[in-house]
């Protein structure tokens, strides 16, 4: 017996809701599993952060961490672990939701091949709004110069709250939004074409997804690394003279002696870590999506 139109619409709506929920679930699961490398290589990440802030060679950055001792080595690890899991949940789920809405509302207006990138751009903007405070807290905690007057997570939270949104939790919001939206757009726009090209070389689906995530992440990290350096320098300090984005960029460029090589100092380690993390995340997510049908 044929159901009523309203009944069919309800079933379709329920089916789409289940699909979207799976995207959020799979994104969170894949990101949670990929936090294991993040935890293992966090000392490397912290070394790179010191290079970004202090413009020091790797051996000096390692020496600073060694001098501070093992207790402070993992200071600031909680925000990136929490952020990584929540980030994957939101990024994959929201991109899938936006992609579905765009597919329905932009027929014959926007090329179908451009929709994943456009949905990724929107997801990246929302990601920046939600996770900028996490990154701000993380960067303050990782800066050794803050250890004395901001010794605990609670003291950091209280101080940032007292600064107000613009100077506190949402410091460097504009460059973070630019980095996240462009990065997400490139990731979702390139992921499937690269995966298809790699799979054509005879690799298994899991291996193709891993290579796709790795290559895509490498390109994104390489292109957007200067924005990450700018964000780290803008967010690491609390209570000092506050400058705008362009003024901070000019100071950063001057401190790097107007050298691209010095601007990318520590970039190789960040790109390597990003490639591994996003390769694993992409492989796990695609595997879960295919298994769930």
From TrEMBL:
Organism this protein belongs to: Seriola lalandi dorsalis
Keywords in alphabetical order: Membrane, Mitochondrion, Mitochondrion inner membrane, Repeat, Transmembrane, Transmembrane helix, Transport
Residue stretches of each Solcar repeat: 111-197, 204-291
Keyword Repeat applies: yes
Pfam families referenced in this protein's UniProt entry, alphabetically: Mito_carr
GO cellular component, one term: mitochondrial inner membrane
Protein family (similarity comment): Belongs to the mitochondrial carrier (TC 2.A.29) family.
Top-level division of the source organism's lineage: Eukaryota
Protein name according to UniProt: Solute carrier family 25 member 53
Membrane topology annotation: Multi-pass membrane protein
Compartments, record wording: Mitochondrion inner membrane
InterPro entries reported for this sequence: MCP_dom_sf (IPR023395), MCP_transmembrane (IPR018108), Mito_NAD+_Carrier (IPR052465)
Gene3D superfamilies per record: Mitochondrial carrier domain (1.50.40.10)
Keyword Mitochondrion: yes
UniProt GO MF annotations: NAD transmembrane transporter activity
Database matches in PROSITE patterns: SOLCAR
Chief location bin: mitochondrion
């Amino acid at each position: 017996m044929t159901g009523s139109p309203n009944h069919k619409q309800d079933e379709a709506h329920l089916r789409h809701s289940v699909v979207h929920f799976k995207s959020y679930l799979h994104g969170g699961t894949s990101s949670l599993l990929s936090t294991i490398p993040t935890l293992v290589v966090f000392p490397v990440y912290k070394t790179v952060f010191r290079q970004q802030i202090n413009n020091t060679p790797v051996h000096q950055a390692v020496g600073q961490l060694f001098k501070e001792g093992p207790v402070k080595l993992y200071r600031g690890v909680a925000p990136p672990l929490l952020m990584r899991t929540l980030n994957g949940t939101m990024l994959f789920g929201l991109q899938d939701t936006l992609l579905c809405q765009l597919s329905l509302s932009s027929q014959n207006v926007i090329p179908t091949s451009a929709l994943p990138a456009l949905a990724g751009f929107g997801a990246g903007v929302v990601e920046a709004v939600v996770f900028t405070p996490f990154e701000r807290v993380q960067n303050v905690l990782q800066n050794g110069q803050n250890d004395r007057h901001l010794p605990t997570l609670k003291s950091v939270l209280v101080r940032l709250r007292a600064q107000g949104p613009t100077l506190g939790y949402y410091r460097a919001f504009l460059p973070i939004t630019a980095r996240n939206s462009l990065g997400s757009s490139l990731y979702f726009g390139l992921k499937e074409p690269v995966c298809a090209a790699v799979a054509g070389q005879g690799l298994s689906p899991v291996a193709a997804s891993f290579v796709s995530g790795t290559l895509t992440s490498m390109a994104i990290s390489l292109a957007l690394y200067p924005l990450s350096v700018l964000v780290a320098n803008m967010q690491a300090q609390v209570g000092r003279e506050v400058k705008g984005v362009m003024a901070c960029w000019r100071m950063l460029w001057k401190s790097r002696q107007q050298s691209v090589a010095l601007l990318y100092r520590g970039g190789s380690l960040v790109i390597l870590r990003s490639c591994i993390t996003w390769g694993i995340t992409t492989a796990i997510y695609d595997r879960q999506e295919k298994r769930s049908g």
